[in-house]
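Hey,
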Amino acid sequence: MPASSFSAVREPDDVVRPAPQPVVPVRPILDMPVHDLGWKPALALLEEKLTEDKGLTHIAFLNANNANVMMRDPDYREVLGRCLVLPDGIGVDIAAKFLHGGRFSANLNGTDFVPAALTFITKPLRVGLLGATSEVLQDAAKNFRLHTPWHEFVEISDGYFDRADPTFILKRIEQARIDLLLVAMGTPLQEKWVDRHLTGDHARVVISVGALLDFVSGRVPRAPDWVRQLRSEWLFRLWQEPSRLWRRYVLGIPVFLAYVLRHRLSQPATMSG
């Protein structure tokens, strides 16, 4: 278009332009963008997403174990790429320090993030719970109601529904008119299931929460505060369930660090100092 034609186009003086949206900083971990936010900005971002009418926002978490799964599973990587991904655990902090010269602003693991968000958001929400066993689901819902009684918690289903034909569950979610849906079916199943089946007709925000309901139900104890402050909850969990978790931690952590080292050596320019 000629410059004279372009300069002739002018908006009316009374046009109100929308304020530019703030850019959320990210630190890529193994080429997966992970949002780098402090606690308050992260909670505020979730609250904002719950008020938007722009379809569904799917929040997931990246820790060392999930990153290992991502490196083996291209489909899971694609799904995470469509999510708002938050950092979880000391492993991705070490990776961020090594790859970018600095750690993440906060450890926004789902076990802490979700209860904190429910406390932070004072506007009553309808919160759906999907996954775990029926007993865990019921106990988690009971404790959530005690923790934040101003929200309404809807028990959609345990995690043992018919995966081949989820029509009934999807209809149930839609009819429940959920604001926030917590899906606890384990990685990578939960993220893939959400990505494949859920839309803005089901909820405004979905968070893939892994073992959160087990912790909230009280059936699986959290590590003491001083252990969490040392960023060593993984050791506590390994001590609790060695037969189930030894592969994830004893083998998985060195594998993750090897992926990070190989990535760093292949792309030396990613170091930002």
